Every structure is written in structure tokens, then in C-alpha cells.
């Protein structure tokens, strides 16, 4: 596929101090924990249209797609902007005009809701509608959204509402006859050179809109560059500059904390930030950050508990190192390249073997009922690898964990093969710790196996989640 490609440059050629990027990376490293809940997976920094720094924390890699969560919303907004430019709809259209079969006689504030209110998270709802959509027994998310009470006048109240973005996806499909992803394919993805994007669907077959898109980090950066370039790539107007101005300005207040980048105003599925910066972002640390005053784009994927931290680090360390003119070559540049080429997540601490491996090798442990649906597990050991033989949901599979390194594999889950990387270490003579990273997502999980006379204790914990992860305990015999 032909499409937009970045040029590459040294930071100094584009007026950025390598020392500033190094300081940012060092600050990132200081945030890491053994709980895996403040892990960066990738970063790309581009200035004046050229990539000046890019890196992936092993085992994450350049070619991998990454789940975007709510960063998907900014792409849905873009689809709406393209549909507006083609004369298929306007942001002032009433939402219910597109759902006459589902809602033939709207009343109250629902009847006043317009597309611009979906875009700006100002629908008038007082709770995020997404839960109602996902709980709908017949799978009709559209009816679920239309049945949620609208208790405030649309346009007067900000409430982050993923269900609103879903409705934008439905509207785009209804006016174009194409699923959101298919509508964007020739208009956005192909011109940007975005390869093999995937997008989750609702039970009715509409793309979920507010989440579910997966692309590479490079693709996130290209998307940001399109917005920074006022919709122009390779000399062609891909997206109207009028839409970019409209989508990225503040349409509604979302708080008064001057130090929070969640309280600087909200656009059409974009967040305003301090320093005249704006971003699209997704849960657990997926970012497309556009800095018009600095002619810079930053793309980040991660598995983060606190999403304000990366923004603070960028403002504190990167911004002071940006200059108007080119800078002389710096010895720090080679140090920066070495740092970027050696990035890696923390490996768990411990020993490579235990005195009990021969005793437990091949022994099958039957597990109590658990949320991971594991029914039984056994272990075999080689010098550099731990083999986990698991039966889950009636299916047998073997996962390999590297010792002191990461082993690649696939987790078979509900007829899907999910790419994973695993590592293992002995924390004591009887306790084996396995880390499993779902490398195309923000998620990772720890499995702590403690062997005793009664059998096996399995403790599991995720890194991040919409609820605070905790250790779950499973007994095995």
C-alpha cells in the first residue's frame, strides 16, 4: 500500500535538544513498577514532519498493532468530518432524524439532541450510556441509547459518554452505506499508509466507534501529523482544514483545574490540553498529541494507571528543549539513539531455576473454578524455558515462558489467537512467577504459582483495569 511516510532526522536538525528527549525517557523509567501498571510500550516524536525519536520497550515492537480504546473516538470524529465535507450530514442535524424507526416520536431533551452534542460529549445525559448499551439483552445498542433518560439540556453539560460516539458510528454508516472502517479505508487509512486496521463491532454489526480500533504507533503519529498539517499530506487535502479547526477547539467546559489536562475544554472527540496543545487519548495510556505552536506530534502507547503522568513528563522535560532554529550536533544524540534502541520493560526479579522442578515436572494440577476459565495446569522445564500446559474452556494449549527473556506465543481465547509474550522466574524455591503480556493491548497479567504439600496455590493479578486490579486466589490439587 502506498501512503504517507515520515522522513527521519536528528532532533538537533529540527531544533530539539537530544538532552530533552533523554530527560523525558529517564523520567519515564523512574515511573516504572514491578506491578506493570506504569509501563510505556512505545513512543514516536515528530517535528516539522520528520521523526526525531522512536522507540519500543521490548517485548513490544514496531510492527505490532495496539488497541487504542478511546483514542478511536478521534478517528470516528474524522469520519463525521469527511461525511460533512461530502454533504451527507451536518453537525446541526437532529440525532433522532436518523432513527425514525427506533424513535418515531422523540420528546423532551432527546428531541433537541444534535450531532454536535454527540461529538462534544454534551448530550445531556448524566451517566455514560455505554453500560446500558452493553447490558441490552437483544443486542440493540441503538434502542438502548435512545431509551436512556436525557436529564439536561443538550449542549449545556459535559459528560464523557462512549455511547454517544457509538451513535456517531451508526449515523455515518446509515448515511454512507459503509461501516465506519470501510468508509475511512480509502479516505483516511490508505492515504496515511495505515495497514490492516481492525475495529470491533457491536452485536448489530456497526463498528463500536468509541473504542475498538487497533493500529500501529506509527499510524497514530501519521494521524496526528494530518491534523497538524491542516489536513494536507503529500500535497493533497485529505481532510478539510475547517473541520480540523472545528474539531480541535473547545466546545464545552469540562472542569476548572488549571493543572489538569482533563479540564482544558473538550472539542469534537479531542481533548484540549495546556500549552495550546490538543490530543486524542485512550484508556490506560494511548495518546495522539498534537502541538501546533511547536509543529510537533507525539504518539504513545502504554499500560498506565495514571494517564496524567506522561503529559506532565512531556511538558516538564520535552517542551523546554524545543527551539525555533536548528541546533548544532550534540554528543547526546548518540546517547539518545543507544537509549531508544535498548528500551525494555522491567523483567521480574528472581532465580532461573528451583530445586523442586524435577519433583513437579509433568504433574497435573486440577484447579478450582476461576475467572480465567483454567481447568488444569502442568509444567515442564528446560534450561531457558518454562512450558505451561493449560486446559481452559475444554481446550489444551501450551504457553512458553522465557527465563530472563520473553518467549513469543499465542493465547487461544474464544476462537481468537491473541499474541502474547511470557517470562518466568523463581521468587523462592517454591514460588514461580510468570508474567504474560498481551502485546497488542495495554494489558498484562501476573501468575504466581506456589507449590506445597497440598498441591498448588495460583494467584493472578492484572496490571490495569477499569476497576482496581487485585490478587485473585485459585487452589489446585
UniProtKB/TrEMBL annotation:
Residues 42-302 form the Beta-lactamase-related domain. Keywords: Hydrolase. SUPFAM superfamilies: beta-lactamase/transpeptidase-like. Signal peptide: none annotated. InterPro entries: Beta-lactam-related (IPR001466), Beta-lactam/transpept-like (IPR012338), Diverse_Enzym_Activities (IPR050789). GO terms for molecular function: hydrolase activity. It comes from the Bacteria. The keyword Hydrolase applies. PANTHER family: BETA-LACTAMASE-RELATED (PTHR43283), BETA-LACTAMASE-RELATED DOMAIN-CONTAINING PROTEIN (PTHR43283:SF7). This is Serine hydrolase. It comes from Anaerocolumna sedimenticola.
Amino acid at each position: 500500500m502506498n501512503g504517507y511516510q515520515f522522513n527521519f532526522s536528528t532532533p538537533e536538525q529540527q531544533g530539539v535538544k537530544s538532552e530533552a528527549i533523554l530527560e523525558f525517557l529517564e523520567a519515564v523509567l523512574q515511573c516504572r513498577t514491578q506491578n506493570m501498571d506504569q509501563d510505556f510500550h512505545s513512543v514516536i516524536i515528530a517535528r516539522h514532519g520528520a521523526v526525531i525519536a522512536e522507540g519500543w520497550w521490548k517485548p513490544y515492537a514496531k510492527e505490532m498493532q495496539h488497541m487504542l480504546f478511546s483514542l478511536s473516538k478521534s478517528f470516528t470524529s474524522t469520519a463525521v468530518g469527511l461525511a460533512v465535507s461530502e454533504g451527507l450530514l451536518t453537525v446541526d442535524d437532529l440525532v433522532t432524524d436518523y432513527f425514525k424507526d427506533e424513535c418515531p416520536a422523540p420528546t423532551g431533551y432527546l428531541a433537541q439532541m444534535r450531532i454536535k452534542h454527540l461529538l462534544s460529549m454534551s448530550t445531556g445525559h448524566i451517566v455514560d450510556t455505554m453500560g446500558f448499551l452493553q447490558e441490552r439483552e437483544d443486542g440493540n445498542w441503538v434502542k438502548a441509547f435512545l431509551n436512556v433518560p436525557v436529564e439536561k439540556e443538550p449542549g449545556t453539560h459535559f459528560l464523557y459518554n462512549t455511547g454517544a460516539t457509538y451513535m456517531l458510528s451508526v449515523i455515518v454508516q446509515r448515511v454512507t452505506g459503509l461501516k465506519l472502517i470501510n468508509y475511512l479505508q480509502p479516505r483516511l487509512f490508505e492515504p496515511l499508509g495505515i495497514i490492516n486496521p481492525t475495529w470491533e463491532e457491536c452485536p448489530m454489526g456497526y463498528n463500536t466507534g468509541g473504542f475498538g480500533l487497533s493500529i500501529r504507533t506509527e499510524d497514530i503519529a501519521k494521524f496526528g501529523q494530518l491534523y497538524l498539517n491542516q489536513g494536507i499530506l503529500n500535497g493533497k487535502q485529505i481532510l478539510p482544514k475547517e473541520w480540523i479547526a472545528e474539531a480541535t477547539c473547545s466546545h464545552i467546559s469540562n472542569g476548572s483545574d488549571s493543572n489538569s489536562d482533563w479540564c482544558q475544554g473538550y472539542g469534537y472527540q479531542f481533548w484540549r490540553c495546556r500549552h495550546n496543545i490538543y490530543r486524542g487519548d485512550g484508556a490506560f495510556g494511548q495518546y495522539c498529541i498534537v502541538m501546533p505552536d511547536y509543529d510537533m506530534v507525539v504518539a504513545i502507547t502504554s499500560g498506565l494507571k495514571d494517564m496524567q503522568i506522561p503529559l506532565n513528563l512531556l511538558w516538564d522535560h520535552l517542551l523546554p528543549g524545543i527551539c525555533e532554529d536548528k541546533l548544532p550536533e550534540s554528543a547526546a544524540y548518540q546517547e539518545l539513539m543507544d537509549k531508544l534502541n535498548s528500551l525494555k520493560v522491567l523483567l521480574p526479579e528472581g532465580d532461573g531455576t528451583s530445586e523442586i522442578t524435577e519433583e513437579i515436572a509433568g504433574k497435573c494440577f486440577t484447579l478450582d473454578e476461576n475467572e480465567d476459565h483454567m481447568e488444569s495446569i502442568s509444567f515442564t522445564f528446560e534450561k531457558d524455558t518454562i512450558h505451561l500446559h493449560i486446559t481452559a474452556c475444554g481446550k489444551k494449549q501450551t504457553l512458553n515462558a522465557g527465563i530472563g527473556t520473553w518467549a513469543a506465543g499465542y493465547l487461544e481465547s474464544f476462537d481468537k489467537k491473541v499474541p502474547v509474550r511470557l517470562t518466568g522466574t523463581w521468587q523462592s524455591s517454591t514460588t514461580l512467577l510468570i508474567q504474560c503480556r498481551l502485546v497488542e493491548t495495554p494489558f498484562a497479567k501476573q501468575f504466581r504459582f506456589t507449590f506445597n504439600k497440598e498441591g498448588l496455590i495460583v494467584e493472578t493479578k492484572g496490571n490495569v483495569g477499569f476497576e482496581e486490579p487485585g490478587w485473585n486466589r485459585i487452589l489446585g490439587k
